[in-house]
Amino acid sequence: MLVALAGGVGAARLLAGMVRVTDPARVTAVVNTGDDMALHGLHISPDIDTVLYTLAGRSNPETGWGVTGESWTVMAALEELGGETWFRLGDRDLATHLYRTQRLADGAPLSQVTGELARRRGIAVRVLPMTDDPVRTRLTLAESAGDLDAGVEVAFQHYFVGLRHGVAVQAVRFDGAAESRPGPGVLEAIASAEVIVACPSNPVVSLGPILAVPGVRELLAERRDRVVAVSPIVAGAALKGPADRLLTELGHESSAAGVARMHAEWAGTLVIDTRDEELAPAVAAAGVRPVVAPAVMSSPGVTEALCRVVLDAAR
Question: Is the model's pLDDT at 240 over the cut of 90?
Fold first, then answer.
């Protein structure tokens, strides 16, 4: 059994490769929900939906988010009315949020609703929210932006989409994490997994919320020899998103070695790209075993090869 700690596009792409090289029914994805938000009265779970759309073969390859073949009738009409459209939701995507919101209002927990969405899209992978409790990633700005002053705290989607993650950050916290409980099946899956993969996700805002749920980091540390992380930083830069800048702004090194030092407590192995081969000694010095392989998922074939490297490294 394989467990993947997942958040964002990089995680979804790795999972898409994993289901081509191993039995999807033996894969569990524990997904970040710190990005979740309420908008237009709807509960939106961006990372969960990115994973679901990708595994169902419906993700938009051009954007990395949303649904392929999307239409935008509702957003266009909302814009005409002067409504809030900074966070764009396509028509098919809206159906997902409408279903989720209704089921949550009926009293179903997020984990149950996520399972229903996965089954109805023919997804064999077990997709688990990190928690059913509300945990929200919030960032404190290090500089002013528009009508926001430095020192103001904003929700993740406001930073990521509204501000286009172009504003420096001085602190990140996970509101509600200390009071949360791991989602049903999360700890059991980690405890019994043959392989635990930390996907190439942002260490701060994608993996960070999962690790902040009480019990998760501690259990991973106990199973450290079975944990293989894939560095999301290649040649000092993030392949997508603001991971490199966030690491630097928060006092970390934006490199594969910096990722190794962040993960050292709970990950025994780190896969780094061939362009970072010279950093292997620094990764080892952090107490993490380096494995060098092509780690940029530029094609399905390269992604599948990377997945095989991850599986071999854990075994």
Answer: no
Give me 6's structure tokens.
Answer: 């997942």
**Token pair for 111:** 């984990």
The distance of Cα 240 from the centroid of its chain, to the nearest Å, equals: 12
**Chain centroid offset of residue 95 CA:** 22
Is the pLDDT at 244 greater than 90? The verdict is: yes
**Is the pLDDT confidence value at 46 over 80?**
yes
Q: Which domains does the chain have, with CATH numbers?
A: 33-129 (1.10.8.240), 136-175 (no CATH), 186-314 (3.40.50.10680)
Residue 61 pLDDT greater than 90, yes or no: no
pTM of the full structure: 0.95
Place of tokens 């764009």: 88
DSSP structure string for 50-95: HHHHHHTT-B-TTTSSSBTT---HHHHHHHHTT---SS---HHHHH
Phi, psi of 92 (to 5 degrees): -70, -40
